Amino acid sequence: GDSVTQMEGPVTLSEEAFLTINCTYTATGYPSLFWYVQYPGEGLQLLLKATKADDKGSNKGFEATYRKETTSFHLEKGSVQVSDSAVYFCALSGSRLTFGEGTQLTVNP
Amino acid sequence: DTAVSQTPKYLVTQMGNDKSIKCEQNLGHDTMYWYKQDSKKFLKIMFSYNNKELIINETVPNRFSPKSPDKAHLNLHINSLELGDSAVYFCASSQGSQEESPLHFGNGTRLTVT
User: Fold this and answer.
1) N or C: which end of chain B has fewer CB within 10 A?
2) Set of chain B residues whose Cβ sits within 8 Å of the Cβ of A31
3) Chains A & B: contacts with CB separation below 8 Å
4) B9 vs A64, A107, B12, B80, CA distance in Å?
5) CB neighbours of residue A42 within 10 Å
6) Which of B27, B41, B59, B89 to probe the A interface (max A CBs under 10 A)?
7) What tens digit of pLDDT does each residue of B18-44 get?
8) Under a CB-based contact definition with an 8 Å cutoff, are residues B72 and B21 in contact?
9) If you average pLDDT over residues A83-91, what whole number do you get?
């Protein structure tokens, strides 16, 4: 069945550091891929998405490129801020939406 | 102008009790969901309703019973609460299937069973 694997957390960075959170997937067909973010005390919200191979999703300085050849959708940001501290979830839409296990990011000033 | 609202935000109760969580969305979406998030942040879908009809029913104890009086509301009733039910429960909605459009989540209900 479909599955999503994220890099284990937690990840701790200093402000202005470069961020990468790895995400790989297993799916049949051509799923859409998503990153959701969960800020403390809140529900998840969509951060970005990509619907086909080589698409790049971007929002709030975050980017992720749909790589079919490596079945990956890694999340990147060039310079993180304290306000980016949250849990990040990679997800794919196959027969149903499948979430990864989440990666806790803490950014220190 | 809250899009997806859940009540209560916190719920502390004893084992064996019955409790309900309510959810309402004002986005005009036709599909609503219940998710359970455990202490390690793992997210698991429990139920999904489309236009008041149950379309996803995961392997969830039948002590959990969802009810959708109309497409803007999806409530979750839990009978005979157990310690293992302690978690954060999220309601969500989307237009169409979750594969087609992004989910909009409520802020969660933190259930603690003592």
Assistant:
1) N
2) 99
3) 49
4) 33, 27, 10, 20
5) 14
6) B41
7) 999 999 999 999 999 999 999 999 999
8) no
9) 97
